[in-house]
Amino acid sequence: MSEMREAMQDVKRALGKLGQQAPEEMKCFSKFMETVLKPGKLDLKTKELIALGTAITARCRYCIGIHTQKALAAGATEDEIWEAATVSIMMGGGPALTYVAELHKALQEFNKSE
Description:
By secondary structure, the chain is mainly α. The protein is built from 6 helices and no strands. The longest helix has 21 residues, at 78-98.
């Protein structure tokens, strides 16, 4: 298993355990996420690009992987993803800049159009 997929699996396992320990809270959080990502004034692709940019500024490796994968599935191009990354770097500075390494790994794993 690749490094990015392994990191994502680790978090999914931990979230599963958290769901056992706090089922009501996780059910509510999952419903919230589902509701937020429904197309509204913004389409799903735009919302995933925002989530990806936020993931970079938050320095969340798992979030970078999952939202890269979801942005691609929602129709984002690699160019759009890199542009979203530059906006997040503008907002997050040098620390966010270093996390483009994680974005690069995620694109290599999940972008089947390369």
